[in-house]
Specification:
Rossmann fold, Helicase, Ruva Protein, domain 3, Arc Repressor Mutant, subunit A, HTH_Fis, ATP-binding
Length: 349
Amino acid sequence: MDGLKKSYQCGFPQYNDSSDGHSVKNIKNNTIYVIDDIVAINSEMLTVKEKIKRAATSDSSVLIYGKTGTGKEMVAQSIHNCSKRHSNPFISVNCASIPSTLLESNLFGTVKGSFTGAEDREGLFQAADQGTLFLDEINSMEPMMQVKILKAIEEKRIRKVGGTKQIPLDVKIIAALNQDPMELIKEGKLRKDLFFRLSVIEIDIPQLKERKDDIEYLTKYFIDYYNEDMGKNIKRVSKEVKKVFEEYDWPENVRELKNVIEGAFNNTKNDIIGIDDIPERLLNQRTNRQSYISIEFDANNIGLQEYLEECERRIIFDTIEKNDGNMAAAARDLRISRQLLYYKLKRQL
């Protein structure tokens, strides 16, 4: 294996590109990520990595919850590559990307003649036999389809569309959501019985704004990555950019940080990434926050306590609005319990 190095961190060999530590695609099992690709020093993320290792030791279903860009597929692939199934297929499907009329035949396969143009074809469940099936955005499925998925998981067998034969399977199921599961259940978008069947093992991935101590670490990681990838020699970001990164909310999470660094590599003419090399939207948020505080406070007309209460009120209402009225999501962004959020709202109104 020239140019590759072996990692036995999970107890099974994982091959990474030895030149920069980044994964190369595993043609055999359809993955590109291993657990070493999850770059973190944050304690919550280190806990996530420990959960990945434990989840890999059993065949129990796993439910991953994380906002867009937090790395749900990376976590799912890491579980697969840490498990005894690592040499077998990892099959990933974004349930939201397949029309509901085609989802059943894609997942379970078809029997020739079952509908116009149908041929004998295996579905993704069969393709993942002895391996792992990753169902992303599973809440996008219609309720009847969720029932069929639940039945397949519980009985460990499937029946093709138009077929009568039950096909036994050995598949580890990993599912992912990018919205709060309890809210989805309340809204009728996720069946409670399917949620409990999938969430035997739960892994919640924190947003980047909740792991600020990882931003500098990730920034250096991506700089090293794009130096290797683009043949450049960027040393670091400027102090001003570092401060902007620390204050920005990163709504698209790690994916957005990676894209910002890549964009800066294409913009900069220097060996240090400066303010002019990053998107203006990052600066706008910072400007808005600074003006938010400096403009409002007038020592002649308002005391500190009243000023702080007004700041809190605006932050709460802005956060609720940003989350389209989803109180659970707003509470999570504010890093307070939902009960405390309701209490504060009642006090403000």
